[in-house]
Each structure stands twice: as structure tokens, then as C-alpha cells.
Known about the structure:
Shape: elongated
CATH topology of the largest domain: Jelly Rolls
Number of helices: 1
Distance between the termini: 52 Å
Strand order of the largest sheet: 16-18-21-20-19-22-23-17
CATH class of the largest domain: Mainly Beta
Oligomer: single chain
Radius of gyration: 30 Å
Number of domains: 3
Helix content: under 10%
CATH superfamily of the largest domain: Galactose-binding domain-like
Amino acid sequence: MKTLNLRSKNLYWILSALMVFGFASCKKESATIVGGKGAPVITRVRTVTKNQVDSMLTTTTITYDSQGVATTVTSPNYTPQVIKFDSTTTDGKKQNLYAIIGQNLGSVTSVKFNGVSAYFNAALVSDNTIIVSIPQDIPTGPDQPNKLVVTTLHGSVSYAFTVLTPPPTVSKVSDYNFVAGSQITLTGVSFATITAVTIKGTTDAATIVSKVDTQMVIKMPASAINRANLLFTYASGQAASSQEFVDLDNAYQIFVNNDFKNSWADNSWAHPSGVSTTTSHSGTASIVATYPAGGWQIEGWSNWYPSIDYSADYKYLTFWVKGGTVTHTLVLVGDQMAGGYGQVQNQYAYAAQLVTVPAKVWTYFKIPLGAPSSTNPNLLNFWKNGTPAKQLGFFLQGQSGDVNETMYFDEVAFIK
């Protein structure tokens, strides 16, 4: 089978730009720096390109079958395209290209933003234009001079230009759950200019314990929310985290703050089990679960009274689990679930029941819940057979050659 891809593009601006840059570079001679002899002047800074989605830009795919019959499919393009864009600006973003426009720029020796040098290609320099990219490491914020300085063989010129502070972006968190007073470590970029952190949609403010540009530690406030994003106030405005955080103080707790809650207790088949101070994700204790080699074991917990009634308010079951020596897939079981609190084998479990636990590390799970009538395999139907529910556990289907495995669970809760 042969496939031919045809893409319609407008290359006119690219060819034009290359001709201009080529002409500028041809003006330089090996032994002579071309440029005006006067002091450099900057009249403006302009953008060079921007990203734009052009749905009129199509991709046509022609496929031939074994008989040589062609099938043609034309699809619109929704991938951003880099296009020419000339707009005067007094501020810029890191790692974007800009054109410095002026006079007597041809003998440029350095370009600096807020005192930090930026790379430029001499082939893209003329006496009236310098094409430059703003480096990632340029300092930003209200304490910076917000100056662009161009130095040539005949002097320097300073121009008011603000490098925008990128919005704070969180790439990793130490915990998605919190209680009042607990600390969370955020890892990412652009934390240095953050002046305030609140729970989005509220005025509940977290305390900034420490911060550098790539990491920040915050102390979480008391709040009435169930779950929400964080809102950062920083030098250029406000930005929200993409991660959602859960207030366990407002959740139905099974194991939080080093102990069982709401009358839950150990209901495991093997020992040791129950509360352990060997390790924890938060605090000083977690629940240890032991799976003997080759065994078909359920490790879990029970609440014989008052148990837990179904409520449509419950949206997720959440927990942290630390894996054993190798990666295992557990089956989440309960007395009111399909298959009950029993040895439900992996091949008979539905997607929301399967919990793949990486070895030796803590992994966070937030499993969406469904109504008792739900047949969606991606929703955990914890009350399928009725209410209240009295048991929750994890079954590991042992195999020949297994070793004894020990896992740990922490911060187990139903959240709204």
C-alpha cells in the first residue's frame, strides 16, 4: 500500500525573509564590518512571527489498495503554524524572535536584556535590523530595569523593553491532598515572582514558606472547598495551576493523619497488616498490606457499622500507594461491588477496578465514581449491589515464582 501526503502551504513570506537575510549577509565582507559610523539608534522593536491555526490549510492523504484503487481523504489542519507577523511591541516573551529596528546597527557587538546577553546571528544583521531571540535565563519582574541595550563599535543605546514573566507552571507536586496546616512542595518554573497563593474561587490564602524560581513550599490554609486549583499572583498577573488539590478535611476519610477514621479498621487476609510506622506518604504512619508469594490475597479494610452510604456527592476515591519489589496490577474490590469482596481476577475486572502500582515508589490515584446504575467501565461502581458498603480492599492474583510483597496505603478517602 502506498500513501502520498500533499500539504498546501503559503511559502511566500519565508522565501521573502530568506532573500532579505541573504542580501544583508552578502553586504558583509570578510575584512570589513559594514555599518553606519554614528551612534546606534533604536526606533522600535517588532515581532517576527506568531502561531496561528489555519483550518483552511488542509492535508490530503491518498491511499492505494492492492488493486490500485485510490481513496482520498482531506482533513483540515488544527496544528498551529508559524506565520510572518510584524507588530511593534514594547514587551516580549522568552524564547521568541524579535527584530530590533533602528540606525547604525551593523557593527553590533552585543545585545542585552536586563543586563543578560542574548545570542544573535551576524548573518541576520543589517545596519537597520537585528534579529534576536530572548533567552530563557533573562531575569524578569518589578525589580528589573526592563531595558534593552545594544552595543556597537560606535557606542551603546538603551531602549525601554519589558521581558514578560512567564506564568508560574507546576510540573510536579509532593501531594495532591492536604489538610489545614500541611505543607506541599511545588516544582516547576517562574515561582520567584509569586507574591500570593490562594485556593481558586476563594480568598483562602496559603502561606509561602520558601521559594526559588523552580520550587516553592506552601502551607495550606483551612478551607470549606472540597477540591480546587491553586491561583498564583505574580509579576505579570495571575495564573492557575492545572493540578487540582483535595481538601481532606472536607472528605469522607478512611485513613488520614496516621490512623483509620470513621470506624474503619483493618480487614486483611495476611499479616502484618493495619497501621504501620515503617513508612508514610504524609505524617508518620500508613496502612501496610502483605501479599504472600503465590497467594491469592485480599488486603483491605472494613466498617461494619455505621458503614458508608451511597451519595451522589461522592465523585472520587483517592489514595496513595507504595509498590513492592516489582510492578503489580491490583483489583479494587468491595462488598457491594460486582464480584463482591472476593478474588476478582484481572480478566474479569473492569477498567476502573484495575490499579497498576509501580514498584518501590508512592503513586497517587484518584478514581472517578459512578452511580449504582452506571455501566461505564471507567467509573468505579462501589455501590452497585446496594447501600451501605462495609468493605474496601485490593486483590492480588498471585502467580508461580512470585515473591512476598509488601505495599503501603495512605490518605485514603472518598471526596466530593
